Amino acid sequence: MTDPLDLLDIPTVLTDEERDIQSTVAGFVADRVRPHVAEWFGDGRFPRELAPELGRLGLLGMHLEGYGCAGVHATGYGLACLELEAADSGLRSFVSVQGSLSMFSIWRYGSREQKEEWLPRLAAGTAIGCFGLTEPDHGSDPAGMRTKAVRDGDDWVLNGTKTWITNGGIADVATIWATTQEGIRGFLVPRGTPGFTTRDIDGKLSLRASVTSELHLADVRLPDTARLPAATGLSAPLSCLNEARFGILFGAVGAARDCLRAALSYADTRVQFGRPISGFQLTQRKLADMAVSLNTSMLLALHLGRLKDAGRIRAEQVSVGKLNNVREALSIARECRTILGANGISLEYAPLRHANNLESVLTYEGTAEIHTLAIGQALTGVPAYR
Length: 386
Known about the structure:
single chain; alpha+beta; Butyryl-Coa Dehydrogenase, subunit A, domain 1; Butyryl-CoA Dehydrogenase, subunit A, domain 2; 3 domains; three-stranded mixed sheet; globular; Glutaryl-CoA_DH_mitochondrial; Acyl-CoA dehydrogenase family protein; transit peptide
């Protein structure tokens, strides 16, 4: 049985360093995640104890320079995300939010003191961060956020609510975006700050092995040193989101590959009408179509990785990758479940768990509709969502 990504010899276009990164993360996932991930998903629990292990591997903020970060190039970071999401989207989401949202916001927009205080601990996994942008009434339109920060002498007073915040309930520090008289600004809010509380969102059917929370700010008083000094305007949080979306477009390929591997293995051993179902034409058509989709998604991810490594990637190109690869991964996960038949609805098999997770991935970090319109704007010059 051929590995689906061997169909076009894709591993041969990777560098030795990239293959080493991918192999190291895959080994960690095989040892520490795969034996337990179905249980974590079923119980609705994220294993916080993994954070220091991820830190020791250098996976937290791995694409950032200095302050204990590994400084790995973008494609290597993408391949790590691929292997993490091949286990579960919740694991990749933790790493993505920690590194590309929480840490990147501090690394790119923070003061030297903020960086020295938080980045080494976040890189080591001894502290956890989150990123508070989305609000109950403002998801795709963050410019309309209602969270406000008002100056009071030398301090700021914050009031508002954020929702659907990954890592929120376990975070030691939250990057909170708020409107001010000078425009949108970012603030670092440590856990334990008076007036700052969190509530985990229960009853999820997706991303169950991940912490998702509401953040509540009621007269939260912060010194001006909590403000991210270089973050001015909406472009600051959007640049952080673009970093996270890049990891997603690789991660989705990992989820799709895991589903297709499961379907290929199952089809080779499931016997109906006297022979394995892999020998039937309809099954082979499904497998072939999915393999073509998976390989083209991987080639797209690698192309975008090379562009990012060269410093030439544009936001609409990331939108192309996120839209296509998540959409194709979700389709593959659903189709693989059909090959597994009734067994496919069991947590014993990964495809439906991946499909459930990918429903969230399709929505967060920009919905499919928003990325479609971002691409449309790049093609026509017309911002149709305004």
